[in-house]
Amino acid sequence: MWLSDTQKIGVALTTFGSLFMMLGVMLFFDGALLALGNLLFLSGLTLIIGPQKTFYFFARKQKLRGTICFLGGISLVFLKYPFIGMIVETFGFLNLFGDFFPVVLTFLRQLPFIGTLLSLPYVSRVVDRLAGSRASAV
Q: What is the pTM of this model?
């Protein structure tokens, strides 16, 4: 997959945003790290898919509940309520990006070490249930 320079910067910003958010959660919901992670994540997403597509993604009628929760959670983090904000933001994130989980799971199962880990009997059942995959009746 060929990415433009702007998209490469967007991938880096999104990655750093995710890392800052994880670090903010690990450091007992540090508001500054969570706020910085949110800004980096949103700016990176905008650089990856473009401003117009980002607006249309968040403004779709099917994703309205997720958008309100996601942006409301970010607002709560900025207003110094990081724990409640992250709960609301996570709910919104799952509503917005939940459709991508089976695709991500399929990609992860093709990786050398992670794929064998996800294919273990008990782990595969849990991951399939979390991703929304269904086992065939045959």
A: 0.82
- H/E/C letters for each residue in the chain? CCCCHHHHHHHHHHHHHHHHHHHHHHCCCCHHHHHHHHHHHHHHHHHHHCHHHHHHHHHCHHHHHHHHHHHHHHHHHHCCCHHHHHHHHHHHHHHHHHHHHHHHHHHHHCCHHHHHHHCCHHHHHHHHHHHCCCCCCC
Q: Which of 97, 89, 98 is nearest to 21 (CA)?
A: 89
Q: Rounded distance, CA 58 to CA 128, Å?
A: 27
- Give the Cα separation of 63 and 113 in Å (integer): 34
Which two structure tokens, joined as six digits, stand for 136? 């065939």
CA–CA gap between residue 36 and residue 118 (Å, rounded): 32
Cβ atoms within 10 Å of 41's Cβ, excluding its own: 21
Please compute, for residue 43, the number of CA atoms within 13 A of its CA located in the half-sphere on the CB side: 11
What's the pLDDT tens digit per position in 28-62?
999 999 999 999 999 999 999 999 999 999 999 99
What's the rounded mean pLDDT across residues 122-126?
Answer: 90
